[in-house]
Design goal:
This protein has 264 residues and is an alpha/beta fold. 39% of the residues lie in helices and 15% in strands. The protein is built from seven helices and seven strands, in the order E-H-E-H-E-H-E-H-E-H-E-H-H-E. Strands 3-2-1-4-5-6-7 form a seven-stranded parallel beta sheet, sandwiched between helices.
């Protein structure tokens, strides 16, 4: 990481490109779903990726798949909601990272009047508290190297609008957006950029069951001007862009991968 921060070869020719050769990236919640797709995308762009979650077996399988495809991957097992574990496992790692994809998150859809304290605490603990202390720990390692970095917090279109049965989730993602803007200001002197990626509903094996409900699918598509659900590549493309020097002047921003949902 050099120059103005945000990726290798900063300050080189215009249109620096989307390659991440020589970079190291940490992805949380990387055992499956969007986190795994992000790790695969970063590895395909040339980064050495560290996959982190609570489940070693998933991580090792994912890392093996990345390596079979020609990438480089290793694993860290950690519960992102345990600040002491984050400090010990991430903070104590011998490596530092040039890129963090702060992806671990959850949702507990409930109507506002039905939200339980347990559900509220779980969503906020993972989506806000966990994200905060992972980012703080990785940023400290980035700052210590003096080489800059890129932190990408995985947010949501629901960070910019409201949604039925999403009061706690919206609260957590709106908080993540505010945190990202403040982080960007505090970390700019260290040449660390901080942004969010805000997907709409993404079609994955885990979400496919939701869209078997034809009414829900029709309502969702009716809110997306582009007329389709997001796919994994839509999200990973945004992540690779924000990790790379192609976005070297972008910090404190939200990249909405929502097909126009929030434009309405």
């Amino acid at each position: 990481m050099s120059g103005d921060g945000g990726g290798a070869n900063s300050g080189s020719l215009p249109g620096r490109g989307l390659r991440l050769d020589g970079q190291r990236a940490l992805v949380t919640g990387a055992g499956r779903g969007i986190g795994l797709a992000c790790a695969e995308g970063l590895a395909a762009a040339g980064a050495a990726v560290t996959l982190l979650s609570r489940t070693r077996s998933e991580l090792e399988e994912a890392a093996a798949s990345i390596e079979t495809a020609g990438g480089r991957a290793d694993v860290l097992v950690c519960d992102c909601t345990d600040a002491d574990a984050v400090s010990e496992v991430i903070g104590g790692a011998s490596d530092h990272w040039d890129v963090l994809v702060n992806n671990a998150g959850t949702n507990r859809p409930q109507s506002f009047l039905e939200v339980t304290r347990e559900a509220f605490d779980e969503v906020m603990r993972i989506n806000v508290t966990g994200a905060f202390f992972v980012a703080q720990t990785v940023a400290a390692k980035m700052a210590a190297t003096g080489e800059g970095g890129s932190i990408i917090n995985m947010s949501s279109q629901m960070a910019h609008v409201g949604g039925a049965r999403r009061s706690v989730y919206c609260a957590s993602k709106h908080a993540l957006e505010g945190m990202t803007k403040a982080m960007a200001i505090d970390l700019a002197p260290h040449r660390i950029r901080v942004n969010t990626v805000c997907p709409t509903f993404v079609l994955t094996p885990m979400t496919a069951a939701y869209f078997e409900d034809e009414a829900f699918l029709a309502d969702t598509l009716g809110r997306i001007p582009l007329g389709r659900l997001a796919e994994m590549n839509d999200v990973t493309g945004a992540v690779v862009f924000l990790a790379s020097d192609a976005s070297a002047m972008i910090t404190g921003s939200a990249l909405k991968v929502d097909g126009g949902w929030t434009a309405i």
